[in-house]
Design goal:
homodimer, Arc Repressor Mutant, subunit A, Tetracycline Repressor, domain 2, 2 domains
Chain lengths: ~190, ~190
């Protein structure tokens, strides 16, 4: 029975994070503030502020809740096919609700807040870069990619190019873009 | 004498754009609004709203004012050296005042506004991609890069990777990053 308050607290937290995502998806970034989330969740603003000092902190936790390991790379032994499959699967998942609007909102806030930018990178983008690096390193060990090359920056190029297209243009991260990116990557490092 | 009102109008516009940049550099994105710019410029808010319906529209024009052709590529006949020189020259110019804070603010606003994102891409990023493409196409014609390859997407990769690092991490666009990017580009397309 001593765990009951903790369980209730966890349920309340989960509910708040769910409502945050829901609100972001419905009202968009412009209408997103602690007041709107509190109203929809039926709690006082102080309940939110006690735990999350800023909207950005709340958004980061809301993002974490839905950022799943489903976004991980497969390993079928064909590096080009596995990268292609993951990019084409994760790009729409990261662009659409529930992740899309919240992710964009955090990225926007991070432009004016270097500490938030560091947290955003540590909690999300570093993870993406590292899982990409892990997958292409395995391909290198398997002889699919040239040996003796440090692939750390190429992993950043793969992720960065697709983020750039998503954030700074109205062009989609589609098959044409992904294939062109993989053409360049394989031209550079394929065996 | 009939041109006098037009000249005065142009001078007033230029002054407003200058003040916008100055305000952005000093107060940062958080403190940036039409009221603050109007106060510093000594004009009424309506004077600004008559010409620029949103802060974003004003910011785009302010950016245009200082976005100079000094950011263009050189052509010494050495593609790797010319790309390197341009990346290392333009990255700090785009990150520091007067361009840096305004550019980041527009990019942040564009995350919640697809029309602004399209305008931002058309007025600035497309220009960057196209001048990069023009420079690497000349290198291809000169035999420095492999022939028969469409370099449109590689130009996007070059720009996008550096924007990603600038916008979504706290890592600098430094010599190490630029050299690693050029290693990949030349491994893919160098002759």
């Amino acid at each position: 029975m001593t765990d009951e308050p903790r369980r209730r607290g966890a349920a309340r937290t989960d509910e708040l994070l769910r409502v945050t995502l829901e609100t972001a998806a419905e009202v968009g970034y412009a209408g997103l503030n602690v007041e709107a989330v509190a109203r929809r969740a039926g709690v006082g603003k102080h309940t939110i502020y006690r735990r999350w000092p800023t909207m950005a902190a709340l958004l980061l936790d809301a993002l974490s809740r839905v950022w799943t390991t489903d976004l991980d790379y497969h390993d079928t032994g064909d590096i080009r096919a596995d990268l292609r499959e993951q990019f084409l699967r994760s790009a729409p998942a990261l662009a659409a609700p529930p992740i899309g609007p919240v992710y964009r909102a955090v990225i926007a806030e991070a432009q004016a807040d270097e500490a938030l930018r560091a947290t955003l990178h540590d909690r999300f983008l570093r993870t993406v870069e590292e899982s990409t690096l892990a997958r292409i390193k395995r391909a290198q060990e398997a002889g699919e990619l040239v040996s003796g090359v440090d692939l750390t920056f190429p992993a950043e190029v793969l992720c960065g190019t697709l983020y750039y297209r998503h954030l700074l243009s109205t062009r989609a991260v589609d098959e044409t873009a992904v294939d062109a990116l993989l053409d360049m990557f394989m031209a550079a490092y394929g065996t």
